[in-house]
Every structure is written in structure tokens, then in C-alpha cells.
Amino acid sequence: MMKLPPMKSLLAGSALALVALGAAAEKAAPVSSAPAPAIPVEVTERIDARFLDYQTEQHVPGLVWGIVKDGHLVHFKTSGIGNLETDAPVTSDSLFSIASMSKAFTALGILKLRDEGKLYLDAPAEYYVPELRGWTYPTTDSPRIRVRDLLAHVSGLVTDNPWGDRQQDMPEDVFTEVLEQGVPVSRAPQMEYEYSNFGYALLGRIITNVSGMPYEDYIRTEIMLPLGMSSTGYDVYAVDQDRRALGYRWEEGEFSDEPALGPGVFGAMGGVMTNADDYEKWVAFLLGAWPPRDGEDAGPVKRSTVRELSQGLNFPRVYTRDGLEEGETCSVAVTYAMGFAVSAECELGTTLAHSGGYPGYGSNLLLMPDAGVGIFAFANRTYAAPSRIVREAALELASAGELPAREWPVSAVVADAYAAAGAVYEQGSFAPADGKLAMNFTMDATLPVRERVLAKLKGEAGACQTDAPFKANGRLSGTFTWTCENGKMEGWLLMSPNHPPLIQELNLSFVPAD
Questions:
Q1: CA-CA distance, 12 to 19, in Å (whole number)?
Q2: Which residues contact 431 (CB under 8 A, 6 or more apart)?
Q3: What is the DSSP secondary-structure string of 485-508?
Q4: DSSP state, residue 258
Q5: CA–CA separation, 312 vs 351, rounded Å?
Q6: What proportion of the chain, given as a percentage, has pLDDT over 70?
Q7: What is the pLDDT of residues 236-258, one digit of tens each?
Q8: Residue 33's pLDDT is what?
Q9: DSSP string, 405-456
Q10: Mean pLDDT, the chain, as a whole number?
């Protein structure tokens, strides 16, 4: 395999290259409103089989799962019972507690208030919750807990699973007393990730104090209802009880009822009750924030703000996760962002995920924004954990080629540069790039040297189809693959960060045919 030394070329001299970068770049295509293509039946059958096996193995009375793609629910299934006494089946209308998957709503509520100019993420939380001002920190040099620290679980508050799961119905006045008494802080803030349900209860109090209404009312009126999530809320007693998928515990070979938890302060960390009919709208809304593009922001929160949910504070952990086949593994870097754990997966790309485990319930959501796909599952058994099966469903989609990444549009300046690169290869000369090369190009290697390397490369590869599609990974860079007489030519093109943009790098690598 031979590499052409770095080549950089500007598209000056072309009318397209002389316009401003912002004007020259093609506008990103809007997310399609047309229904996404159906997933092949053989793929959904494998996915459904995995969920059904999980349901049996984990003793789950009722289970629902769905796949959202490009804003549409493209696959949905239900299995089992929502009420063991009446044998009522679970349906798309069955209401489940989604436990800690509620945190994403709280996080987005905080970001919305930030957008409205009512709070600052980097402000100490005590600015908005005065009771925190008297807290004692572990060291004299500990920074004050910021709002941002609470979002990312780096506040120094101790991990409180499963204690926090039993606090949902704590009244506001009791919570105020707890805050006034002071809460022990496990470590100095901003030092390490430590999952804190208490921290998200504090975020709920911030929403209440800043918005002037109870956090659950703010999130419901400002986020849920505008999305059409009319069946979603925080009060288990305010809904038609016949619609509920009742929660159960499996213990010593039999089911028993789990008492419902009423509304309260800790609902901000885990109190949302919803159904699949509503939740698919939430998933579609979140995924609709990608890719960045022109056009109206029609949702209750800006697309750019939704994308902030994927931004963490760089306290990564590394996990080894299994693939579909026995022995397949993937080392995955994970960081907690805002209401989601964000990963860089081997097969799935960037993912945002969160589980929900509660007395009587278990749930999971996995978002793959690069592909515009999300998978969710709700179960009505204590701490049922469908996260593994949700991820396996995603791997099934990936293995079937059903998770292609959304493509960036190719900007005009890159398209022109790519055409010049093709002409350079075909002519064996950099003459087509005359006046188009960035200043470092001939400094990195002289043109005579580059042309000798190019001649050797052409001798190995032969003629190539230089008009093959270009895959942009931004507005100023991308990759391409040319089919050649003797193999494939892999290429990388990178423009310079000045105006007008120049090709600052062109790498060609030949891969001989087998």
C-alpha cells in the first residue's frame, strides 16, 4: 500500500470557491417527514425473539418494545400481561413507570430554563436553592456544586441506588428540611462520576424555584404537552388505573404486587409514567435534533439544546460489551452527559442511552443519532433490565445494514476540490490544482516529489473511476473510494480553515485486489 504525501488544494479561480464558505456550503437536507422504510421481516423476527426470550428468562409479566426511525415508529410489539388479577394484556396505551429515564426530561427542563435566560449551568446550585449555602464540603478547597455538576453526576453526592428509588413521594417541605440540615458530600465536586438520584431531585427543586411552578407542571406544560404526550405525567393516582401496567416483584418463584409510589420531590429523578404511544413522540423529537441543519425549530426546545444532552464532563469509564456472536467483544468508552450515558460503540457509533429501574418496573432507551434510530422497552417487573436486549436489537439492525449513518451534504467547495483531485490523478500532474493549493502544500513536499509518488501509485493502481461518490464528514473534509483497474484507492480530502478554503491535505492509499 502506498500513500501520496499530504496534498492541499484550494478551489480558487472557480466562481464557487470565491463565494463565502457559509454561502458556498450546501444546506443540510431536512430530516425527511416521509415514513421510514420498513425493517425487513427476517430482522424484526430475530429482534422479537430476543425480547420474548428475555421476557421468559427474567419472569417479566408484560413487555412492550419499539423502534423509531427518522421520526416514525417502524416496529412495535407487545407481549404479556399488565394486570395479573384481571389478565389485561399490555398494549401501546399501557402506562409504565420509566424510573430513571425520567432524568432526561429534567435535564431538558434545566436547559430550556437556561435558554430562557433564567439560570446558568455554571452557577453554584445554591444560587437557586438557598438551603445549600450552609452545606459542609469534604475539603476546604472543594468548589461549590454547580448546576452542571448535578446534571453530569459529578457533584460529589454519594451514589444512592436503591435508596433513592424509595424516596419518590417525599413531600416538598420534608425535602426542604433535609436540605437545611445539610447532606453529607462523599467527595469534592468535579472530581469523579458518582450517580446521584438526590442530585436530580435537586435539579427538580431548581426548576421549581426558577420557573415559579412545580417542576412536574413545568416539564409537563413546557415539554410533554407540546409534543402531544397527553398521557404522560408524574402522578400515578391521577390516571385511569385500568390503563396502568401494574408493577410486580418476582421472588421465590412467584409474583407479588409492588406498591405504587405517588408524586413527590424525587419524581424529578424517576417519577415519569408514560406509554408507548406517547414515548415514541419523545424519541422522535430527540432524534430529530440530528443532524444540525437549516430550517425552523418547531419543537418546544431548540434542536441545538437537545443535542447538548450528549455533552458530558469528560469523566469516562471503559466497559467491555458483548457482540451478537459468542466471543465478540467491544471496549466502550462511556461518559454521563445530561440525562443520558453517551458511548462510542464499535458497531453502533455514538449512542445515548439510559435505563430505568424501579420497584415494579424496568425500562431502557437507546438512541443512535447518527442513524436516526432509537429503541425503547418497558417492563413491569422490579428492576427488570432490558438494556442488554435493547442493545442486542440494535446490533441486529447494524448487522443487517439497517443503521446507515446519515450522510453530510457535500459542500460546493469540497465538491470542486474533489473534482480537482480527480483531475490531478488522471493527468499525473498537479497542474489542475494550480492556484488551488494551500500555502503549506508545497512546503510539506515539493510538487516534483509528489508527482513522482503519484506516478508510482498510478503504476500500481492503473486507471481509476475518479467520479465515485464523495462521503463528507463535515463541510470541509471527507473520504472517497475509487475503483481502479488493480484494486481500490482510498482517499481523504481536507480543506484549510481560511477563506476561501484550500485543500490542505489529500491522502491516497492503494489497496490491491485480492
A1: 10
A2: 424
A3: TTEEEEEEEEE-SSSS-BEEEEEE
A4: P
A5: 13
A6: 93
A7: 999 999 999 999 999 999 999 99
A8: 53
A9: PPPBPPPHHHHHHHHHHHHHHHHTSSGGGTT-B-TTHHHHS-HHHHHHHHHH
A10: 91
**pLDDT tens for residues 71-120?**
999 999 999 999 999 999 999 999 999 999 999 999 999 999 999 999 99
CB-hemisphere CA count at 13 Å for 466?
A: 19
pLDDT digits (tens, 9 = 90+) for 44-75: 999 999 999 999 999 999 999 999 999 999 99
Cα 165 to chain centroid, rounded: 25
Query: Whole-angstrom Cα distance, residue 73 to residue 373?
Result: 10
List, in order, residues 6 or more apart from 299 with CB less than 8 Å away: 226, 227, 285, 288, 306
Instruction: Report which residue type is found at 147.
Output: V
pLDDT over threshold 80, residue 6: no
Grid coordinates in use for 61?
Answer: 409479566
Return the bridge partners of 333, or none: 318, 344
Q: How confident is the model at residue 446 (pLDDT cuts 50, 70, 90)?
A: very high
Give which of 331, 216, 197, 198 is closest to 264, Cα–Cα. Answer: 216
Instruction: Please list the alpha-helical segments (H only) found in 298-343.
Output: 303-307
- Total-model pTM: 0.89
DSSP string of 369-397? TTTTEEEEEEE-BTT--THHHHHHHHHHH
CA distance to 380, 454, 508, per residue, from 461 (Å): 60, 10, 11
- For the chain, the first-to-last Cα distance in angstroms comes to 13
Closest of 119, 118, 23, 37 to residue 74, by C-alpha: 37
Nearest to 206 by CA among 276, 137, 305, 120: 120
